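#onboarding

Welcome to the new folks! Below is a worked example of what a typical request in this channel looks like: someone posts a single protein sequence, and someone else replies with the predicted structure as tokens. Don't worry about understanding the tokens yet, we'll cover that in week two.

Example request:
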Amino acid sequence: MDATKHILVVEDETHLAIGIKYNLEAEGYRVSAVGDGRAALKLIEEHSDGIDLVVLDLMLPGMSGYAVCESLREQGNMVPVLILSARTLSEDRIRGFEVGADQYLQKPFDLDELLSRARRLLARHTQRTALPPGRQGITQFEFGNIKIDFDTHQVTVGGESLRLTFMELKLIRYFAENEGIVLSRDKLLENVWGISTSPTTRTVDNFVLRLRKYFERDPSQPRHFLSVRGAGYRFVAGDEEPSPE
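Example response:
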């Protein structure tokens, strides 16, 4: 295990923070732990690019985990974030993804599952940052009257600015990088949300509906974000015939 990997645990339940820290250190990682959101942001700022993964509780004193993650993404910090939460509603999970979380693990969780997810997120982050400039995925994309800069998060439709969430940008980027390919909901969940299973496929469907609302001339007759019955979705930059729903 690469001992240079630095993980930040943000958890206000002391006994849980100690347990997570102990087990991550047993895996060979360097681990820091703080009990509130503001302390987390300060530590991340002090370490600049020195944090490789943030394990983040949602229910924190003073500043929620949602706010912490959103602040990181607004600053352009793409460090992987694994949210821990006792909240069970799908709306909470969706909100976590919207503010920029990479994965969401519900409490109480299995320790092996936590360690496995941490390993995968660290590996994916390492692979991505190791790529030379120009091979880390598309940075700018245009289709129709839409212009998107994935580095600055600037989006314009017909010259008018549009604000998208981190996860909406992540989804459209994945569509753009796989233009013309039929993508199943499971594949989208795995490669965009970073989860292999979900209690419902509505997460993907709801996000696609939102992209249609933003970018389609007639969201009820999409020409870019197309449904493929029984298979998933296909994105085309050109102006295809409307997709029947």
